Amino acid sequence: MIELRGICKYFPSNGVTALQGVDFTLKPGEIHALLGENGSGKSTLMHILAGYSPPSSGEIFVGGEKRHFSSHADALALGIGMVRQFPDFVRGFKVWEDCVLGSEKQGQNRLFFDPARLRKRVEEKAALWHFDLPLDAKAESLTVSQRQKAALLSLLLRNVQWFVFDEPTTALPPDETKNLFELYKRLRNEGRSIVFITHKTDEALDVSDRITVLKAGAIYTKGYLEKNLTQRGIEPRTFGSMVRCTEENGAWHLFEHPVLEVKDLHLEPPGLPPVKNINFRLMSGRILGITGDRNSGLETLELAITGLLNGATNKRNRTNIKGSITINGKNVAGKGVLAFRDAGGAYLGADRLGNNLAPELPLSESLVIHVCRRARRGIFLNMGHLDSWCEKIMGMAGIVRFAKDRANSFSGGMIQRILLAREFAEGASLIVLAEAGSSLDEASRAKLTDDLQEYARQGKAILLFSADMEELRSLADEIIELGDYQ
Fold first, then answer.
1. Measured between alpha carbons, how far is 82 from 87 in angstroms, rounded to an integer?
2. Which of 37, 40, 223, 385 is deepest in the core (most CB within 10 A)?
3. pTM to 2 decimal places
4. Which domains does the chain possess?
5. What distance in Å separates the CA atoms of residue 103 and residue 148, rounded to the nearest whole number?
C-alpha cells in the first residue's frame, strides 16, 4: 500500500499553498479516482507521489517503509509511474526508442548495446497489451491517445505496479475513453493499482472502486462507491451548484459576413486520415461545431485550417492540398501558421503542451509568442509591453501565480484557462478551438460558454473541433459530422 501522510506544498515564488495536510492512500488492486475543481491540488499531489515534485512537509510510505523521492526516477524504481495528460517525447526519436529511453541496459548483450533486442521487447509488450502503435514512426507524429499508450507502454516495460493518470480522457473521444477504462480494469485484475485524476464525476462513478475529492488543497470527502457516494452527493460538494449550459443560440447574428470558407478541400497527409471534398462556410457571429471519429479526418482538417500541418512539414505535404481555405478573403491553404494568424485567426489545439506551450520553459515565453512582433522597437523588444501582456492574460484567466514559472508546473485546468485567455485576448475575427471544455470543471465550463457566446455577439466567428457531441450541442449553432474514409 502507498500512503501520503500530512502532505503540504507551498510555492514560495508566488506565495501559493497548493496542499494543506492531505492524507491519501492507494491500495493494491484498486482504481482510485481523484476529483476536484481546477486548482484544487489534484495534479500537485500526484506529482509528489510520482516524484516530480517534493512536498514542503509530510511523509510518503511505500509498503510500510518511509521513502523520500529526489526525482521521478526514485519513484519509478519503486514501481510508481505517471502518465501525464500530454506526455512528452523526444522529437526525432522513433516510438520504440522513446519507450525504452533510460532503460537501455535491458538491451545490452554482453558488452554491446543491442537495439534489435530492445525493439523486439517493445513489440512483444505492445502486442501483449493490444497497443496498435506505429513503433518505427517518429514520436511527434502520434495522436494524443497514441502518446498516452506509448507512455503507458514505457511504464509496463519497467514493470510499474502503481499507475497515475493525469486527466487521461481530456482529448479522447468516447470510444477511446471506453478502451482506456477497459485497460484500467485489466491492470487492476493483475493486482496493479491506478489513480486517475479527473473532474468528471460520471467517469469516476463508472470505473472507480474508491473516490477522493480535493477542494482548495485539502481532502473534502472520500469513500467507497458502494457505501456512501452517489453522483448527486459528489457533485455539489466538489464543484458547487451545477450550472446548466444555455441552449439559446442563434439570436445575435447581426453582422453576418463570411469569415472562413473551405472549398473543395482534399488532403491526404502521410500518417493522418485524409479529408476529401470538404466544403463549408462560417459566418461572423456564428459558432460552428465539427465532429467525427478517429478515422474521419477531424484532426487533419483542424491542422490544415490553422496552418500547422502545412507550415510545420515538408514541401511534399504542402503540394498535396487541393482546394482553398479562405479567412477574411485571404487564401491561407498551405501557407503555414503565420498566414493563418495574419489573416485574423487564433487557435487553441487539444494538445496543450505540444503545439501551444513549451513545457520546460517559463509560461511567459509561450504567452508572449503572438505579440513579440507588436512589441518590437527596432532590433529591441519592449519588455514592459510583454510583462503587462502576461499580467493581462493571467488576470483574465483568474490565476494567481507568476507567469515566469515553468509551464509544466501548472495544472491542466490552469493551462486550459490561461491559453483560452491568451487566444481571446488577441481579438481575432476567427478563433479555432479543439476540445474546448477539456480539463475544465463545471464552473469553468459555464464561464467558457458565456465567453464564447459573448465573443460571437461581438461579430466574431468560432470554429469548434470536438469528439464530444453533447458539448457541441450546447455551444454550436450548427454541427458538421465528418465521415469515415478508412
1. 9
2. 40
3. 0.55
4. 2-89+142-239 (3.40.50.300), 258-481 (3.40.50.300)
5. 19
